[in-house]
Amino acid sequence: MAEAKPAVDKKVLHKALNKRGKTKKDKYGVMSYAIWIGAVIALIVGGVVILIINPEKKPHQMAVNDDLLIAQINSVSTLFKAGASAFFENWSIGDVKKRAGIGLTNRVNPHQCNVNTKMKMPAEFDAREKWPACFKHPVYDAGNCTSTWAIMGASTVSNRFCIQDPNTYSALRLSPQTSLSCDTLNRGCDGGDLDTMWFHYEKEGLVTEKCFPYTADPDVGCEEKCNDEQPLKIVAHCLVHSEDGIKREVLQNGPVVAPVTLNDDLLVYKQGIYKPLATAKRLVTDRRYPVIHAVKIIGWGEKNRQPYWLVENAWGEDWGEGGYAKIAIERDTKDKDDHTKSVVLSYCFAPTPSNKVMEEQSTAGRGGDEAKYEADLDLAADDLLAEDEEEEDEEEADEGAEGDDDEEHAEEDVALDE
Ligand SMILES: *[C@@H]1O[C@H](CO)[C@@H](O)[C@H](O)[C@H]1NC(C)=O
Ligand SMILES: *[C@@H]1O[C@H](CO)[C@@H](O)[C@H](O)[C@H]1NC(C)=O
């Protein structure tokens, strides 16, 4: 194809020269015309050749640990530093998108957490410092499995058993493999729903890592679980809203499970306070729903007037600050439908372990939350596998289940914008 270029040039030139005569002025005009055409053709040919020999140019095939992206972030970002992590070695952006699958069914109506509104709120809080006996285990490495829903769930329940009774449960490490292999309401390594995963903990309970070690292998069956261990159950779970509500729940009872959206720059976060750059690219599925990931909120803080959540992730200890991150709390998201900025979404889930000592609950009204909750859940939609619906209805005595027509959401996506 490249050979065609001079031929076209000559032909065009010749034709044009014959037509217009041969004055010096005209010749220059015709020549520049020919050069323009030649340049356009060369660009097209070059573009095609680059696409053929270098398919890496497609965005989803870009490496997560892209050197250029990392350098660009480090040159402009004042709040956080970027770097490659071992977890994403050889992963492309497309590989991360393929791991979408965490969502909400929008078919159950979890209770609102009854947070203590009278508690004095510290400016900074770190659950690891408040309950050191309960945070002795390293962070998880989820591997190539959409398991953060199960990892964050099991790990939050473990923390909360220990917070209630550190003498008995400081070594407790409940295994996410229990839900990955045994929770028929969810989808194992293909994902799970943050609002229905708790039913399995309530009904069947969780066994420990020793009994059923976590592997990122989608083919591990429930029968591989040991059968000489009494699973630990939760007695309830609840949903908590707003920055203030989430903080109070964490302060009072321990970590919560938080859904987050993913941007390309979060994947290479190394240290500091992560706040999406203006150039950040949000990861979306083929159907343009944001890819949802689950983390655990263990505290908060503020530095240089930038408030942040302290979160635990499951991308190994090499990612972020030893596996943890500080993620900016974005208070200036005025439009509640504008989820482009808030990486940590505005709601979290909190389980109540069966050893929870019930205190006198605050009955202070938090009336505004109900409407806010409905609004947020309306933004989120997902489906349940048809065969699971009966099971769910049976388990969920709550008559408040939404009557939304969510059937069109045939994939494991969460519709948070649009
Ligand atoms: C990444 O790819 C390189 C080259 O193919 C290979 O040598 C290396 O072992 C891979 N790393 C991982 C973690 O798979
Ligand atoms: C993850 O596993 C799938 C197959 O289940 C494979 O297609 C994909 O390439 C794997 N991704 C990585 C990053 O290893």
From TrEMBL:
GO terms for molecular function: cysteine-type peptidase activity. The keyword Transmembrane helix applies. GO terms for biological process: proteolysis. InterPro entries: Papain-like_cys_pep_sf, Peptidase_C1A, Peptidase_C1A_C. The keyword Ligase does not apply. Residues 376-418 have a biased composition (Acidic residues). It comes from the Eukaryota. SUPFAM superfamilies: Cysteine proteinases. Residues 121-352 form the Peptidase C1A papain C-terminal domain. The chain crosses the membrane at residues 33-53. Keywords: Membrane, Transmembrane, Transmembrane helix, Zymogen. Residues 357-418 are annotated as: Disordered. Belongs to the peptidase C1 family. This is Peptidase C1A papain C-terminal domain-containing protein. It comes from Vitrella brassicaformis (strain CCMP3155).
